[in-house]
Amino acid sequence: MKLPIYIYGHPVLREVGADISPDYVGLQQLLEDMWETMYFSDGIGLAAPQIGRAIRLFVIDADPMAESYPECKGLKQTFINARIVESSEETLAEDEGCLSIPGIHERVTRPATITIEYVDANFEPHRETYSGFAARVIQHEYDHIEGVLFTDKIAAIRRQLIKGKLTNLQKGKVSAHYRTVTAPQKRK
Fold it and tell me: For this structure, is 117 an active site residue?
């Protein structure tokens, strides 16, 4: 089932996700729905907070990026209870966008290499190191389970320049080809 994407300004996007166990109710259906939602929305990653769940779960399929970024070849994985345990001092800057912040793309500087520990959909443990664009995609989704958005990581001047667009998203003025959930509006 295609789930709606929660949009910038919704409080769930700022929550730190809770760990889950193998007996998390409806986990297999949730994973199927997340993959379907990500593909329908033309994303390469989707984190549980983006569909309204403050849990430590995200899915990634960066394989479509492999022609431009060979390190993404075959990167299709479910990450549960992930923790980034090492980050390089070397950084890379690239443009990023987000399904929860439609229509906005900004340059974000991130560590070039990370090591992450997580369990997969079968709750098998992994410790893996990723570099380049693959590391970027993982860090972007990981930030979601930490309550962080890519707009938090851009230069202050750039944040000021897009403030109006972000305010519009908070007010529910959203244009996307997928279903969305906006922040609850305060009554006057």
Answer: no
